[in-house]
Amino acid sequence: MGNELVPVRPVGRPSSFNPAIAAYICEQLAIGRSLIAICEEKLMPDRETVNRWGKKYPDFAAAIAGAREDQADYFLDKQIEISENANAENWQLKKFQADNLKWVAAKLKPKKYGDKQDVAVTHTGAVGVITADLPSLCRLIAEASGTGTSIEIQGDVPSGSVLPPEIRTE
Q: What is the pTM of this model?
């Protein structure tokens, strides 16, 4: 009996992907719990395992992203609740807590809660680089302005330049 081999069980938490555990993690994130707190529960994988699952399983990564957006909504609701419960004695603590939740919500869902506004600009015209000698460039500018006015060049004109008559160099 003393020489029998006893099977060794792996040390640590199981790291095989489990859809039920994955769904539980997403549900808990959506109601405001941190991934650290969730992973500290008995029978839960550690954070590194959850992060590996996200890299290996795109559907799980998408579910986590959706849960984080729901978490932002939860944090903003919680922020309102905290602000409503402030009083003369605890207003500074409540303000700190509410501001922290508002900041986190802005980071989790910036399009909805962030301070920055995205502005989209569409340009349909041609973009390019004009390479021309100075007289030709001045002529192009005068023609593009459509005013028929001449362009006055101030400063030195490169030697050898022959300026067209409509450009004054006084």
A: 0.59
